[in-house]
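Before a colleague's protein record goes any further, I have to sign it off. My question to you is simply how this chain folds and whether the tokens agree. I do not need a full report, just your reasoning and any doubts. This is what I was given:
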Amino acid sequence: MTSTVTVVSGGTPMAIFLATPQGAGPHPAIVVAHHRDGVDDFTRHACERLAEAGFIAAAPNLYHRRPAGEDTLQSRDYLEDGHTIVDVNATVDHLLSLKSVRRDAIGVLGHCMGGRTSFLCATAIPIFRVAGIFYGGGILTSRRDNRPPPIEFTRDISCPLIGFFGKEDKNPSPADVARISEECKRFNVRHEFKLYDGAGHAFQNFMNKATYREQQSDDAWSRLVPLLNAELKS
């Protein structure tokens, strides 16, 4: 079942797309951070797939402070990490208000810029028990508000990370992924990263025929769900 709710975050209305599994629950929940194209068919499909696996999935519109209809590339350029953390916290608060959600079993994941959001929020929101990163670019760089890049806060991560990346990607490049892994090792952050041959950025995005790689995408899903189960359903 899917629905859209509206909450107030940072003083303005923010829509959250929800996908809910069958049964009364309570269910584990996952905040799904959208990619640069916003909460589109791809992000909604990811939420629905998570619901089919038994998770309540919630995708907030992180562009809600921007004008409706604005090009998402421009909206992305105006994102600030401080605002993003506020918005994800507001999404978590909504999930915690639902009787169908297990309060002790909440994770976060995202694709592309959403992968960066997932890493960022793992450093800042301690309720998360797992964070999934699909080819998250920009983890090593700052945003508009000039807050230090998320990588600088690796020490604050208290949950395991699950990461999926393409060896042909340039943001993050394999060297970037290696640096993120080294920071995780430095601060004893448990992580499991998978790099795929023959894949670049956005290899899961079936809406982009140029980048989509079905085999690698399916393999990533086959690995992701058991890992989420292990962290959130045990």
Observations:
- Residues 2-232 form a domain with the Rossmann fold fold (CATH 3.40.50.1820).
